[in-house]
Amino acid sequence: MNSIVYRITGLMFLFVAFTVVLLIYPADYQMNQLFREYLLLMGRGGMMHHMGQAELTFLASVHRSLNWVGPYSLC
């Protein structure tokens, strides 16, 4: 009986971990894409706007927070 409970618990853990990983990567990609589109729209007034230190810091911060979402949600 305990063997079945452990198997089901393990499978549920793997399922939740896999689902969280599957949701983090598309969200990260979409956030990057939308942010780049925003930068392009802001730069249309003249010279092309390249990412500066503030934008790079923002992207790094979002990447770190997305990487913490998965393990935190499993707890």
Overview of this structure, please?
- By secondary structure, this protein is mainly α.
- The mean pLDDT is 76.
- Helices cover 84% and strands 0% of the residues.
- The protein has helices spanning 2-42, 53-74.
Topology:
Blueprint lengths: L1 H41 L10 H22 L1
Describe the structure concisely.
With 75 residues, the protein is mainly alpha-helical.
Write out key terms for the chains shown:
2 helices, 75 residues, elongated, mainly alpha, 0% strand
- CA-atom Rg in angstroms: 19 Å
Q: Helical amount among residues, as a percent range?
A: over 70%
The count of β-strands is: 0
Helical segment tally? 2
Shape: elongated
Q: Give, in order, the helices and strands.
A: HH
Oligomer state of the chains in this structure: single chain
Q: Biggest sheet: strands, sense, closure?
A: none
Separation of termini? 25 Å
Question: Strand-residue fraction?
Answer: under 5%
Uncertain regions: pLDDT < 50 for 5+ in a row? none
Derived structural class: mainly alpha
The average pLDDT is: 76
